[in-house]
Amino acid sequence: MSNEYSCIKGAKGDGGVIRYAEFCTGIGGFRLGIEQSALNTKLVYANEIDTCCENTYKRNFGCAFDSSDIFCLNPIGLPDFEMMCAGFPCQPFSQAGQERGFIDPRGTVFFKLLEIILVKRPQIVFFENVPNLIRHNGGKTYKIICMSLENADYEISAEVLDSTFFGIPQSRPRVYIIALRKDTFGSKKIHFTNRRTQKTALRDYLELGDYSIPISDRWQEYIDLYTNKISPNEVSFTLPKTRKSLERISASCDLSDCVFQIRSSGIRAYSLDEPFPTFAVSNSGGGAMIPVLSKERRHLNLTEMRRIMGFPEWFSFDAVSRTDAIKQLANAVCPPVISSICNDIQKTLQL
To answer: How far apart are CA 25 and CA 31, in angstroms?
Structure first.
């Protein structure tokens, strides 16, 4: 545990302040959303095993977090809190992963969180994960999660929300689960706000003219190929099978002014006048998997990727490498959605 962590550990709840603890903290997306909401809160504990994330977290919040392995935590030793938040690992339940569920060690984080819940008895539990969690293993995984919380005397509310309807230029559907302790709130359900804006297009969030992440010579040829300036026979290298043509082109997409999203299955082209699809980047260190703007012939820059995730302009990644910053953003929660849900909690419960 970092020495600097003492700046938030042990804070006391008084005057109606909701003390909250965050697990699987990442770079603090939950914290940003909570602090931007109407809830009167105080962070008393944060846990994340990734020490690289801690560098970013400390740079922006002035505090480190507890970097202990969550499986090694003794719930009795944690400070008291009224609300628990966690975006527990999604890879075991994601269609993009191997969908190993609870067989994957990361998938068992939920059961450790449940152990903490049973000891600390927070009044509010707030989880985030991929929508496929609901469908995983024929719905059995989600049923286990809900039944576990219900057996602990919690009332469950859940909704799939898309970030593009919360002022974020990305379509990132996620399931949000709120569990309320019945002996405190009875059988109340959270009424989720499904949208606060119309669809948010990417174009207005671009920082045009920033070539801080240039593309390679090979990518120059890919763009020429996909915009029909050259034929496959004119490419100077052997084309991989998944790169010979675009895997998918969105409706109303101008290939000369679009964004190319690189996937393991192929390259897709998306209109700048629509939300960017779910931001997920496989980082190889050289930036090869970072989305590309066809008109400016460059990768998206960090400012644009930060905006795609709904992080504020002041949020800094100066303490980590660019590759780590991109990975951290791709694994984060979108703060404006968290803020909206916290406002829904405040309104429903009149806190």
So the answer is: 8
CB under 8 Å to 150, separation ≥6 — which residues? 156
Interior angle at CA 91, CA 25 and CA 63, nearest 5? 10
The DSSP line for 73-87 is --GGGSPP-SEEEE-
What is the mean pLDDT of the segment spanning 321-344? 95
pLDDT tens-place string over residues 270-329:
999 999 999 887 644 445 578 999 999 999 999 999 999 999 999 999 999 998 999 999
Phi and psi at 301, nearest 5°, equal -95, 175
Residue 11 — pLDDT band, cuts 50, 70, 90?
very low
For residue 238, what are the contacts with CB-CB under 8 A and spacing of at least 6? none
The CATH 3.40.50.150 portion of the chain extends over 3-199+333-349
> What is d(CA 225, CA 235) in angstroms, rounded to the nearest whole number?
8
- pLDDT confidence of 10, banded at 50, 70, 90? very low
What pTM does this model have?
A: 0.91
Q: What is the average pLDDT score of the chain?
A: 89
Q: Check pLDDT > 50 for residue 1.
A: no
Q: Are 311 and 205 in contact (CB under 8 A)?
A: no
261's CB contacts (< 8 A; 6+ apart) are 267, 268, 269, 270, 276, 277, 291
For the domain covering 3-199+333-349, report its CATH number. 3.40.50.150
Residues forming a β-bridge with 41: 18
pLDDT at 45 over 50: yes
Q: Give the angle 235-295-316 at the CA atoms, nearest 5°.
A: 115
Q: Kindly state the helix (H) or strand (E) to which residue 23 belongs, with its residue range.
A: strand 18-23
159 contacts 121 by C-beta, under 8 angstroms: no
Q: Report residue 148 CA to chain centroid gap.
A: 24
